[in-house]
Amino acid sequence: MATFLYKLGRLAFRRRRYVALIWVALLALAGFGAASASTATSSSFSIPGTEAQRAFDLLDERFPGGSADGATARVVFKAPGGEKVTDAANKAEIQEIVGELKSGSDQIASVADPFAAKAVSQNGSTAYISVSYKVSSMELTDGAREALEEAGEAAQSSGMTVEIGGDALQVMPETGATEIIGVAVAAVVLVITFGSLIAAGLPLLTALIGVGIGVSLITALANVLDLGSTTSTLAMMIGLAVGIDYALFIVSRYRAELAEGREREEAAGRAVGTAGSAVVFAGLTVVIALVGLAVVNIPMLSKMGFAAAGTVAIAVLIALTLVPALLGFAGKRIMGRRARKAAEAENRPEAKPNMGTRWARFVLRKPVWVLLAGVIGLGAVAVPAASLEMGLPDDGSQPRSTTQRQAYDLLSEGFGPGFNGPLLVVVDTKGSEDGRAAVDRVSQEIEGIGHVAAVTPAAFNKAGDAATITVIPEDRPSSVRTEDLVHEIRDAGRDVKGDTGAEVLVTGATAMNIDFSEKMNAALLPYLALVVGLAFLLLMVVFRSLLVPLKAALGFLLSVVAALGAVVAVFQWGWLASLFGVEQTGPIMSMMPIFMVGVVFGLAMDYEVFLVTRMREAYVHGETPGQAIVTGFRHGARVVTAAAVIMMAVFAGFIGSSESMVKMIGFSLAIAVFFDAFVVRMAIVPAVLALLGRRAWWLPRWLDRVLPNVDVEGEGLRKELSDGGPAEGGGERELVRV
Fold first, then answer.
1. Is the pTM of this model over 0.85?
2. Minimal CA–CA distance to 731: which of 263, 149, 106?
């Protein structure tokens, strides 16, 4: 592989104008496609194989036109102190608003008069209007939202409190200014690392081109592939981080080759042949982790993983082709004056060891203490992970200042905490001889279960072969008692089916959240086994070792659990919540842990490959295990540190997003990269390698013969070059003296 990539790097360097033109053309085409595409809507959310999803599918079939998956809203009214909503003036005001809403938008499916629908609290202080839409929240027009928001203004002027809840007010996530700050921090780190504006700007430029192509393609295909509104944001987050890092490693190796006196084209070829090999395998681990999300069998999560994996693949291709092409345009300016002086000083025999060298020597002297400090420190941070509670956000998790949260609280006060999480029981009576008797039996069974506040009369469809029953729990939607209630109703439904033949299904937002969380929990271990197993095999091929991949996997698990502990402490317990802009604590979003595991595993393997490959390269070329560790840190520690800081800055930039999932993922990825890069890869890894010695690179002979030799460390390439192989091709012969 190293030889092929060496030739590719030289070709891209020589034909730089054509290569640059191709990538610019691809960016323009993708941008044109994105600009021509219709506005993306929200991704249809489904959880195949769950009872809640089967119930939704049955509703669509038996209650056509019911808009089971359409947006909903509740306009909540509370009368001033001493008054009731049933007073003549207040009642007339509310009924007038009902009429305004009915004529406010053709996207409205139904508007329920609170006085006819008995949507008035027992004390008469609170009432609500239920509004159902024909389309999802992301498909609502601005006019429909404005009509909803303006509905209660007249009532407010008369003294009533009016708040609006429901997903109809959900909008596309806003881009935070901190995302731009993250890129700015990355630029500063690159300038400090390279000491040259040209060298610093090149990784940023190539990363932006790659992200531009990836996000534009996602935007262009959003409606065709039913991609969610957060898909492009997450693809941009990951693509930008890996794009900068991959280009950073190629540019850094190119400068190192120039510092040894090689010609520019030769340096580009060697940089792509060696560092490029690490980029390919690092990118493969990220792609494996992201594509592996498909095992969860949740379409939305699978599409997010595939979209992000595509952006990573583009970043790898750009690093292997566009980066060497732009290095050809940069000329001598890729090395600033300070960088040239620093390179000359570092190459002198009497040169002072750099920070990476000094740290590696310290670890070699105290490997046990460094290992214990790293493991105990991460273990302490991981403690809160034992209290992890997962769920999906509702209006109760919104900041208290929002109208959605205030409507939620008003409904809880007026009708009870369970009113915000009603359960919808769907009864399929096709297999029953007496459908109405079966439905009555279901209602009686539910009324006999504890923690039920109310059970509404059954509503049959026109054909009379299906009915719905709304159940109001006593407790809030995210409580353990409500979760137990869902399972108790399902258990009772199985008994009913055995006796009558009628199938009983429980659905609704609350039941869907419960099923989603349970499915994510069940998928986590199989997903870990698949991803870690495939990556273990890949790293075994790269490092020709059994213990190095095992150490990499165990270190990753340690950093992930520590990151989960930090997420629980901030987003669930509220520690330092105000510092990170977390206005409301609550359960951790169900998809966050498994998504974080996938992304962090890929990124963790990046640092493992980049750092340990250099050690492996030194060991293969004759150095002792201890010397190889020092060599790896001397050449790689500065660059890996810069790459980690850049990734942390990019991910942390997304903490400013208005989308709670993006905010949480941005924080979790930033803190996970910190733990993995600076504690696991920079401390635990060299300590373990120091303790293992030559055993770290042991591989059974039979396995060595079976595994393909991908030559990541470039040993075969060096032999070919020393024999006058590929390097004898044409190209520029300008010698850069540094």
1. no
2. 263
